[in-house]
Design a protein that fits this description.
The complex is a heterodimer. Chain A contains 3 helices and 8 strands, in the order αβββαβββββα. By secondary structure, chain A is α+β, with helices and mostly antiparallel strands. A 5-stranded antiparallel beta sheet of chain A has the order 4-3-6-7-8. Chain A has a 3-stranded mixed beta sheet with strand order 1-2-5, covered by helices on one side. By secondary structure, chain B is α/β, with parallel strands linked by helices. Chain B has one domain (about 5-85): Rossmann fold (3-Layer(aba) Sandwich). In chain B, β3, α3 (about 70-80) and β4 (about 85) form a beta-alpha-beta unit. The termini of chain B are far apart. Classes of the chains: A alpha+beta, B alpha/beta. The interface of A and B includes residues 7, 117, 127 and 135 of A.
Amino acid sequence: MLVEHARNLAGIRDASHAEYGGGGTPVITALACSLQGREIIVELAAGSRLAAMYGAERVIERTTCDYGLAPDAQHLAGEFGLRVAAIDDTKEVRAVERLDHPFFMGTLYQPQLRSAPGQPHPVFVGLLKAAHALR
Amino acid sequence: MRVPTVAVLMDLPPDHPYHRATLAALDHAASGSPVRSVVVPTDSIGGRTARSLGEAVVVGPGSPYVDADAVLEVIASAREQGVPLVGT
């Protein structure tokens, strides 16, 4: 999602993801410290759609991420219609959302790993609500 | 009433815990308002846009994807076509 944003909206035509190797301008790079299999504290941005869906200011989420937005590309998360919806306790961007779209969200954690019967995850509830509205 | 389709772009095999968790999360969230979840391996996207894949898209876990360019095209079309999308 962030690579698409960088290439098509921010004009970084060779924006790349380090996981794929090769050249280009890496906007997604390996984290200094892998978050694979960790739980992280997610600070939700006040006024974001994500915060409204959670009805909370900070939550615990599980992640399998070894990659994140490159340190010198963090500004992309707040440009060209995208905004930061959450950061972690190291201030790294952990979620983004579009302002001009019914539901367009990216999380650098895995909400599905915290979902359970009778306790659906707010991100998936929000997605399906938007899908029903589009039908 | 037509049930909305959610396309899940994912290359992980069906027995992978994150594959199962992603489909389970959609099931949990669909309680009372059913959806049809369809896993789309990235090498079978075949130039389809987000809207032609369904009423919503989940860009699933398990990168690197087999066809990352096709995934980027779906993300771009979801953005342009107003199709709900979450990337995890």
